[in-house]
Amino acid sequence: MTRPLVSLLRKYVNIIQRPDNDEGNLFYNKYKFKKFLEMNNIRVPKTYLFLTKIEEFKIDELKDIPCFVVKPNMASCGFDVYNFIKINQESYMEISGRRHDWIFIKEKIKKITTMYNSGGCLIEETIKNPKEFDIFTMGFGIIDLRLYMLNDEILYGKLRVPNHESEGYANTGRKADALFVNKDGIIVPDDIFNNTTTICSKRDFKGVKVPFWKELSETSIYTAKLFKLKFHSIDISMNENYEPCIMESEKIPYLGHYTDKGCIELINLLNQTK
After folding, report:
1. Which of these three, 109, 126, 143, is where a domain ends?
2. Residue 231 maps to which CATH number?
3. Rounded to whole angstroms, how far apart are CA atoms 237 and 41?
4. Tens of pLDDT along the chain (274 residues)?
5. Does residue 40 form part of some domain?
6. What is the Cα Rg of the chain in Å?
7. 190, 131, 132, 138: which is closest to 164 by C-alpha?
8. In whole angstroms, what is the distance from residue 265 CA to residue 111 CA?
9. Kind and range of the H or E run holding 180
10. Judgement on whether residues 16 and 60 belong to the same structural domain of the protein
């Protein structure tokens, strides 16, 4: 059951984001959003879009990609997201460790093309983090940094960290850990989200700075300036070539993890900001 203050915050954020503008509408279509960023010289994962089952023959062209993510193009629910690693010509391993053949993957892609408002199925080449992020992942999965933007400034963020319980996915809906990051990139205890600074290793990360914070934050701020939004989120990661990559963004981020104190503080802050 949604808490009253979370419901109030959600309604408030919906109101301040209207009316829609052309740039704001891009948030609803991940493929168009990424193409828009590429036109503005912002790096994104290499992406493919399948809209109908008729394009099945094109799906086979992806068989040689070593690592890729399959997900809905026009949904932000966190469901039907799969990360695959190629083992050999006939076998693929999901990041969770489960093994599948190519026929299984093709069926997943075809299923997603007919769901989620017919927005199609998006396939992205997986971003591999450089070794400096192993401190968080213990070599298990990849991290995902979500930054909450107030106009074109970083408000705070959360470093979503995969663990064994989340089966390698940096998705808090799958029980991944989330570390609160302040506007300077430092992991600190918080009372804004229902999170901690400890992951499955039981190691305390309080005071640790996110690697390559300068590059990640500058790319996020540059991206935010392209959109005329008062409040939104940006998901960003660092690839193995030490290049920041924008994964996606949400015009209305998920707000269910906010504490009551966090809801009140954000509403007051949005009221004070033009």
Report:
1. 126
2. 3.30.470.20
3. 16
4. 567 888 888 888 887 775 555 555 678 889 999 999 999 999 999 998 888 755 655 777 777 788 888 889 887 666 788 888 888 777 888 877 788 888 888 888 888 887 766 688 899 988 888 999 888 876 666 788 999 999 999 999 999 887 777 766 777 666 777 889 999 999 988 888 876 555 555 567 889 999 999 999 999 999 999 987 889 999 999 998 999 999 989 888 888 888 888 899 999 988 887 7
5. no
6. 19
7. 138
8. 41
9. strand 177-181
10. no
Range of the domain at 51: 46-126
What total number of domains does the chain contain? 2
**Which residues have CB under 8 Å from 189's CB, separation 6+?**
180, 196, 197, 206
Segment (H or E) for 50: strand 47-50
Cα–Cα distance measured from residue 35 to residue 69, given in angstroms and rounded to the nearest whole number: 17
C-alpha span between 88 and 69 (Å, rounded):
17
Strand order through the sheet with 67-72: 47-50, 121-125, 67-72, 82-86, 92-94, 99-100
For residue 198, the 8-state DSSP code is: B
Tokens of 24: 């704001």
- The set of long-range contacts for 213-216, using a CB threshold of 8 Å and a minimum separation of 24, is 213/184, 213/185, 215/242, 215/244, 216/145, 216/147, 216/185, 216/244
Q: Which residues of 46-62 are buried (b: 16+ CB within 10 A; e: fewer)?
A: ebbbbeeeebeeebeeb
Q: What is the DSSP letter of 174?
A: G
